[in-house]
Amino acid sequence: MNYPLRNIKKIFKLSLSSLYGDDEIGAITYYYFEKKLGIDKLRFALEPDSELNEKQIMRLQTDLRRLSCGEPVQYVCCVAEFCGLDFSVDSRVLIPRPETEELVQHVVNHCIKKTSIRHILDLCTGSGCIAISLAKQIHNSQIVATDYQNGILNLARQNAENNKVNIHFLLHDLLHDDFPLSNQKFDVIVSNPPYIPQRNKANLHKNVADYEPATALFVPDEDPLLFYRKIAELASLILVPGGSLFFETHDDFHPQLSQLLENHDFHQIELLKDMNDKPRFIICKK
Ligand code: GLN
């Protein structure tokens, strides 16, 4: 079979139409070609007759099989884009989401007005996307980022190195362990913790539910604010007075989460919407 670029979209459509709509298939196709084969969208338009070589065809066949099982294109390409940067990703970590870019922007807007060094803590860092994007944009920052497994931190460290920033990555199991830097205080704590109740798993797309790490997504049905409670408890101890807490959240739980934060003596609790007009972020002060 020949593989001129002009036929590629048709081949992807045939393989993926039971999983995705046309627009999404188009986006996956261009993403795959750019990130995995180094062929950008412009070449599709300018050189529709150019053929893939044998090595590219073999790779494409293997990868199309993975994509047609529902594996996210970012895992197949081993890279996700976030805040204009590339992050290595695999099944150890969540694929960074566009909403989370907005969370980063809120923290940046808050921090760039200040001239003193900002000590920032990113809890549940995963790929390191939040911490690393903050380090790129807030030059007067010292950033600590935590997660509960060394394998996750190794990937985050690699991402920090590739993006040429300095982050102090720290192994910390938020649910079970005391925070190891108990004497250090932070001006800002940010987190996008797991927040999807287990019972909602059936409503998620196959490419999320079957491939992304369950521990990064789900919380027990009977205690959906588990991570937020642990973070609020920790923040009460290690945020400076007047320091800020930034959360990405699930829109079903805002009243309970606001109440929880009030109970831990946080104030100026604000609920902010995301680009789709969905209430998504909670910001408050100690
Ligand atoms: N901080 C990472 C992200 O926002 C990982 C979040 C998580 O694992 N829940 O993508």
Describe this structure in words.
It is a single chain. This protein is elongated. With 286 residues, the chain is an alpha/beta fold. Helix 1 (5-16) packs across helix 2 (22-37) and helix 6 (98-111) packs parallel to helix 7 (129-137). The mean pLDDT is 95. It contains 12 helices and 11 strands. It has a 7-stranded mixed β-sheet, sandwiched between helices. It has a two-stranded antiparallel sheet with strand order 1-2. A two-stranded parallel sheet has the order 7-8. The termini are far apart. It has helices spanning 5-16, 22-37, 41-46, 54-68, 73-77, 98-111, 129-137, 150-162, 206-209, 214-217, 226-238, 254-263; strands spanning 79-82, 85-88, 118-123, 141-147, 168-171, 186-191, 196-197, 218-219, 239-248, 267-273, 279-285. Glutamine binds at residues 94, 96, 100, 124-127, 129-130, 192-194, 216.
